[in-house]
Amino acid sequence: MIRAKKKFGQNFLIDESIKRQIIQAIPNNLDRIVEIGPGLGDLTQKLIQLSGKIECFEIDSELYEILLDKFASEILEQKLKITNADALESWDEIARQEYFLVANLPYYVATNIILKALSDSKCKGLVVMIQKEVALKFSAQAGDSEFSALAILAGVRGDVELLFDVPTTAFNPQPKVVSAVIRIIKDRNLIGEELVEFEKFLKSAFLSPRKTLLKNLSSYSSKSLIESFLLKYDLPLTTRPHELCVALYLKLFKEAKNERREESSTR
Ligand code: SAM
User: Fold this and answer.
1) Is 159 annotated as a binding residue?
2) Are residues 49 and 64 in the same domain?
3) Residue ranges in the chain modelled with pLDDT below 50
4) How far apart, in whole angstroms, are the C-alpha atoms of residue 78 and residue 54?
5) How far does the centroid of ligand 1 lie from the alpha carbon of residue 187, in Å?
6) Cα 255 to middle of ligand 1, angstroms
7) Nearest-atom index, ligand 1, CA of 107
């Protein structure tokens, strides 16, 4: 029996019905599925039935050896490829072709991996299990107190669906917190190349979540631009960052960006 390594966030999913629900949440007819952290290969086994091409990235070399042994024939038949590496350091390899991401993500890197997949145009969508608290942040809607830059960065790519909760008893060893499975089908690309600038803009907007948008964005654009934007949409000048929806963030970003461009061309 393998000992789970805390440093790699190893909580193995043992509940068969949850495994089935995750598999059912994955769209059909995918050409290439990337699984991060296959662990003991329980989800991997089911993924092989779904797509002709599965690629896994597992950081733990002990698990990697077990997986090579377990899936020797699938590897030989080229239905499955397993790489022993840190997924975050292997992104060029992950993104070499279009893919759909599936994972029971280790908590310590879950947010980073989701953000990486969201900004990667080769990633067509994802079904991932993460800490429920993080799932709520990604799936929050404008007006929710949880609504933050994470939900907006996801929202500009597609709808975030919080599919179901997963109790701690579904794992071995059991984690301390409840998990949840989210799905994002990336059917929008509203930011494209400007993502880095948009992230900078969002960082300013949410600088002090309790302060007003007007105050937070004062370092990014002029006060008069924000004021006239809020008035145009009948929003009070006291609007807080979590109260503006994704569509309005995009509009405001475009106006602020134009203002910056005009300013730099007159300098
Ligand atoms: N998929 C398995 C399951 O559902 O039972 C294991 C999930 S466990 C929560 C997370 C897995 O990710 C572990 O196998 C761990 O070794 C692996 N892992 C952790 N950090 C990783 C990283 N940076 N890159 C790739 N795999 C990683």
Assistant:
1) no
2) yes
3) none
4) 9
5) 27
6) 42
7) 9
pTM tops 0.85, yes or no: yes
- Distance (Å) from CA 10 to ligand 1 centroid: 6
CATH code at position 209: 1.10.8.100
Q: Is 164 in the pocket of ligand 1 (CB under 6 A)?
A: no
Write out the H or E segment, with its range, that includes residue 125. strand 123-131
The pLDDT value given to residue 267: 66
Closest by CA to 118, choosing from 164, 163, 161, 155, is: 155
Q: Give the CATH number of the domain where residue 68 resides.
A: 3.40.50.150
Domain presence at residue 154? yes
Is 1 among the domain residues?
no
Pairing of strands 171-172, 99-104: unpaired
**Cα separation, 131 vs 145, whole angstroms:** 18
For ligand 1, atom 14: residue with the closest CA: 39
Give the residue numbers spanning the domain of 201. 192-265
Pocket of ligand 1 contains residue 60 by CB under 6 Å:
yes
Contacts (Cβ under 8 Å, ≥6 apart) of 29? none
Question: Do 57 and 28 share a structural domain?
Answer: yes
Residues 114 and 160 both lie in one domain: yes
